[in-house]
Amino acid sequence: MQKLWKNSKITLHFFAKCYFFDVFIAFYRAFIYLCTQKNQYNNITDMKKLFLTAACALFAAGLNAQTTYLEYCNAGDLCFSKEDYKGAIENYIKALELDTEKSDYTTAMQLGSCYEQIEEWQKAGDAFKDSYMRGNYDAGVINNMRRCYETAGCTDCLKTAYNEIATAHPEQEFAMAKRLYNIYNKEQDNFNCLKSLETMLRDPELTEENRLKYLKNAASFALKMDSTDIAENYYEKVLEIVPNDADIHKALGIGLYNQIGNIDKNAQAAYSAKQKAGTATRHDYSMMLTATKRATLKYGPKAVEHLKIANQTMKDPEITKIIAKLQNNIAAYSNR
Length: 336
Fold this sequence. Notes:
Layout: H1 2-17, H2 21-36, H3 44-81, H4 85-98, H5 105-117, H6 121-133, H7 139-151, H8 155-168, H9 173-187, H10 190-200, H11 208-224, H12 228-241, H13 246-277, H14 282-314, H15 317-334
Helix pairs in contact: 1-2, 2-3, 3-4, 4-5, 5-6, 6-7, 6-8, 8-9, 9-10, 10-11, 11-12, 12-13, 13-14, 14-15
């Protein structure tokens, strides 16, 4: 009996690995029962016959499971053709549960269409996303997903879907970043707009025209976040492509000029708060002046340089005034 059990371990392990767990359990229970009947089943030949019978049962169960999957698909299609969308949904869900390879994007797409018909928009969006994740890269599917999520008022679902698609399918990373950028731009989410643009700029197939546009936009969003150094870096990349663009020189010069103003304003506000609290000291006053001085000497000369280049074309009197103001401040702080 011990030998019988030892020789059967591998076979039992194999059966346990099968997907047809119910059949395995039935076989296993029968096996345990037979092992207890020493008088009737005590030779290996009989047990080999039993294993063979069980293997055939498992194979038949496999065929039956495949048939069940197809039956669910066909039943769903039949319900769909009769406009029984809830019945179709029930069958399509069961079919997709049996699609262990996650490759049946057609059924997932049909499921999305059913949810559309009964106006369950978020579930429709989920189903179209599932179809895309299963390999349906048709543009219509992802547009359907977007439309359904937007109709459901679930922008967060759409952003999550785009991120999941980009993660699961790296070749779609740049396309999804562009779609995310459009959402964040409408929401005026400067941080995530810049983040999306950084991804879009890594696209090796990016045209020179789009690269220039994305660099300009990235610089603009960086300025809106007071990230002047980042903005300057992007503008410098723009100027490598169009070195004599007066608009870019003006945008960079004004951006640097405004940064000096922002630093000065924040320093004064911090000092004023301490004055009101009665805690201001000479050191605090000195720190306020130092912050403005450092900002002026760091950003001022570059601002003047770019504004002068811009004004060679623009001849703008306001730019002339800013240049003069910057030059006076730079000279004053340089002599201290």
